[in-house]
Each structure stands twice: as structure tokens, then as C-alpha cells.
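[RESIDUES AND BACKBONE]
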Amino acid sequence: MNSTALLIAYLEANPHTIGKVVDFNPIADCLYHFDLTAANAELNAETFGDTEKFSSWIDEKLLVNNCKYGIGGYMEYRTIYSRSAHFDTEDEPRRLHLGVDIWAKAGTSVYSPLQGKIHSFNDNNNFGDYGPTIILAHNLDGLKLYSLYGHLNQESLCGLSVGMPVNSNQKIGEFGHINENGHWPPHLHFQLMFDMQGKIGDYPGVCRYSEKDMYIKNIPDPQLILQFTKAVNE
């Protein structure tokens, strides 16, 4: 079996080991599915190019739809990355989103869904980047899995050390404000990887579309861990 199949088999056999990433209550909380592709005519360059306007747009969508959380993004081709030179390359710009974004208010608590340890952490302080980032390492009966948490607040990095143990459902951080999270509307970038490929404190969350087949082998769908209910507008 490939790594994704092994992960699915482990999670199906050990459902009790899966904790939460955020305090989502499937009974009381509604999810809003954000479409950040060119197909969404509501979201234009004037809006997503201005962090304050973009943040207000996100907040308004959640408010109007009575949703505490928004979600979306796994393997989604997004035009919004044209807002930052961080995603530009000479031959082909990076536009394919590799993780899942969970949109909510700054200060929203973030938890480790699995037992593990601190692999690495860093403040990736570039416009459009992750900002404060934590990466955890997990051992699932011999299957290595890494989970990445991007766009946190600065306090999330305080007191951390490589190798520090982390329990399932342990709080590890909070959503950052726009002035500390890479200049994005408050949200969490949650991503899974089987191989860190030697990277420390960072791993691509957006790639070139031509690299999709390569990355999808290393990055399974975060919904395998999140197990969120269907969004209200799906």
C-alpha cells in the first residue's frame, strides 16, 4: 500500500487517536466553503490585493451565513496568490494550494489532532508567507506523518523546543492577526506531509500546477484528520 492508503487504514483502525484541530462542534457550528479560484466573480484583485479588504470580505461571508468557521483549499488552483511576489517564479507561478485553510477570528485556538512531538518551528516572515509556523512529527505504528500549522500568532512560538512531546488535543497555538500571520485574513493553514524532504520550520503550501502529481503523493487530504461535516453552501 502507498502512504495515503496506510494512513487511511491506520485512522480507520484507530479512530480514538484522532483529536481536534480547532474547537469545531458539528452540531452547533456551521462551516462556510470558500471558493478562492477565478470562478468566484465576487473576489477580485482589488479585494484580495488589500489585506484589510480581503479580511473584511471573509468576515462578512462568515457573518451573513452564520458560520463560525470557513474551510477550503485542498488542491485548489487559486488566483489570489498573485497578491504576493512570494509565489512568483520565472517559468510558472505557484498557484495550487496544498493544504486546507480554516478561516475564523484571530485568537482562535489550535490543537494537535495526534500525539507527536515538535519537529520544527519558525516565523516565516514574508508578505504572503506562513508567518509563525509549527510543524509536528507523528509516528502512527511506523508510518511517519508530519502536520503543519501556518499563520499563527507570535505567542505560539514561545517556549517551544525541537523534540518537545505533544499530546492529542493539546493546544499548540492560536490564529494570528494580519500584522503577524504573513498579512492574511486570520486563518489556519493545516497541511499533512509524509516526508519533510529535509526542510525545517517550513514546507511549501502552494506549488506550481505542473508539480501537482509529485506533491499529491506526499500530501494527503487533511480532511482525513479533520473529518469536518459538509459545508453549508456545498
